[in-house]
């Protein structure tokens, strides 16, 4: 009887150990080489790990965390500390990548050279940006929605902007209208998550935009719960602790202008039906609107910037649904007070920041960040865009986006908030 019990106990212990090994192997190898390593035309479905069920009780989870952390440490190719100075950025080749996408050609690129040696002291700049963020996250007198919640309190669907690259130990939180298309391209190249005729893309600019924004292309935190069940949060925390985490931000008001230009000044069928039609009805008193954006533009029916601002300030908007990601606040997309980011880039210094980040990640030999658009929305345009917006609306809009201004060190636009 005793031998039988010992045998059953041994089988159980060995089974648990093997399951843990499968989890770690799938996380480090399967995720990078199987789930993501697939052509766009035939995406893999994301299933749970074989042998693991979402409701299974694993008992002493702290011990499991420690065990997983050790195994992850032994397998992950560690990145150097983000605050430590690394060697000078290697001089890149002078040849320009081939731009194969029509939209990229139309927009145009800024191919002017930027000398990294003459840029701001990037290390000190990062220290200052992180200090500002952490000080205001810890300042009890500065409050905004969701600030006080813990990482465990964040719903999974709010973690879908965190893209993971297990091959290089990188987590990127993407913010729409802040060079996110090109940063997603970089993540695709690094993770080898998209194939072109059976071969992973090597040049970010070769990746078509429609493939870049397809959700099946990227491994995000939001997908963890379907694959790892009860282990989801624990693996997220381990990766957040060990991987290099970065995001790029932008002056909040300029980002709004850019979103408006992109989604309402250009013919966009989806945004016309989902947002423009309700705005035109609510704020411009239009009825019997065309069903297609081309007909509406042909008839001169376009959402005005004033309509857009009214929509953002209207309390009914958030009651119907959360802000669209293109104008949702960064603190709601990336949770900077719950996630300790190692690198904070800004669109205003994109070229220098991108070059420095790729250097720190030790991937600057593999690729270079695509060049900026020549027609990027400029901060100097704010006065003109907001000239016809009533002062009270501007002040309300600032309060709506104040956390993004303060956390990321953007000065309060006093000229727009006073008579």
From TrEMBL:
Location relative to the cell: Golgi apparatus membrane
Highest taxon of source: Eukaryota
Translocase listed as a keyword: no
Any one Gene Ontology BP term: carbohydrate biosynthetic process
Keywords from the named record: Carbohydrate metabolism, Glycoprotein, Golgi apparatus, Membrane, Signal-anchor, Transferase, Transmembrane, Transmembrane helix
Ranges that cross the membrane: 7-26
UniProt cross-references to Pfam families, sorted A to Z: Sulfotransfer_2
Membrane topology: Single-pass type II membrane protein
Residue ranges the record marks as coiled coil: none
Entry EC no(s): 2.8.2.-
InterPro entries xrefs: Carb_sulfotrans_8-10 (IPR018011), Sulfotransferase (IPR005331)
GO molecular function terms listed in the Swiss-Prot or TrEMBL record: sulfotransferase activity
Enzyme class at the top of the EC tree: transferase
One Gene Ontology cellular component annotation held by this UniProt entry: Golgi membrane
Entry similarity comment: Belongs to the sulfotransferase 2 family.
Protein name from the UniProt record: Carbohydrate sulfotransferase
UniProt organism field: Crotophaga sulcirostris (Groove-billed ani)
Lineage, uppermost ranks: Eukaryota, Metazoa, Chordata, Craniata, Vertebrata
């Amino acid at each position: 009887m005793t031998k039988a019990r010992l045998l059953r106990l041994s089988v159980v212990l060995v089974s648990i150990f093997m399951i843990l090994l499968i989890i770690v192997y799938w996380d480090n190898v399967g995720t990078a080489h199987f789930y993501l390593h697939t052509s766009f035309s035939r995406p893999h479905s994301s299933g749970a790990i074989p042998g693991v069920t979402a409701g299974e009780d694993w008992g002493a989870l702290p011990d499991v965390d420690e065990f997983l952390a050790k195994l992850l440490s032994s397998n992950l190719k560690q990145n150097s500390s983000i605050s430590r100075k690394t060697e000078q950025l290697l001089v890149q080749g002078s040849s320009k990548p081939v731009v194969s996408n029509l939209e990229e050609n139309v927009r145009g690129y800024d191919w002017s050279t930027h000398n990294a040696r003459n840029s701001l002291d990037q290390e000190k700049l990062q220290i200052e940006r992180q200090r500002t963020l952490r000080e205001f996250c810890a300042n009890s007198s500065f409050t905004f929605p969701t600030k006080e919640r813990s990482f465990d309190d964040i719903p999974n669907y709010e973690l879908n902007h965190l893209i993971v690259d297990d091959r290089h130990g990188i987590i990127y939180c993407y913010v729409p209208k802040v060079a996110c298309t090109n940063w997603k391209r970089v993540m695709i190249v690094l993770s080898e998550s998209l194939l072109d005729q059976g071969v992973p893309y090597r040049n970010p600019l070769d990746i078509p935009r429609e493939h870049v924004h397809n959700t099946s292309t990227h491994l995000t935190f939001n997908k963890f719960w379907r694959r790892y069940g009860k282990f989801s949060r624990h693996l997220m925390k381990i990766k957040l602790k060990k991987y290099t985490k970065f995001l790029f931000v932008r002056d909040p008001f300029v980002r709004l202008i850019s979103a408006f230009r992109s989604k309402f000044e250009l013919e966009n069928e989806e945004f016309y039906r989902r947002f423009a039609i309700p705005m035109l009805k609510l704020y411009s008193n239009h009825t019997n609107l065309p069903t297609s954006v081309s007909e509406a533009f042909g008839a001169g029916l376009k959402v005005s910037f004033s309509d857009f601002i009214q929509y953002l300030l209207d309390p009914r908007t958030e009651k119907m649904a959360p802000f669209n990601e293109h104008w949702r606040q960064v603190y709601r997309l990336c949770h900077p007070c719950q996630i300790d980011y190692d690198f904070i880039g800004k669109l205003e210094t994109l070229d220098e920041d991108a070059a420095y980040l790729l250097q720190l990640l030790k991937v600057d030999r593999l690729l270079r960040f695509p060049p900026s658009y020549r027609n990027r929305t400029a901060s100097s345009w704010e006065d003109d865009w907001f000239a016809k917006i009533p002062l009270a609306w501007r002040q309300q809009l600032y309060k709506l986006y104040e956390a993004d201004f303060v956390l990321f060190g953007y000065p309060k636009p006093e000229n727009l908030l006073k008579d």
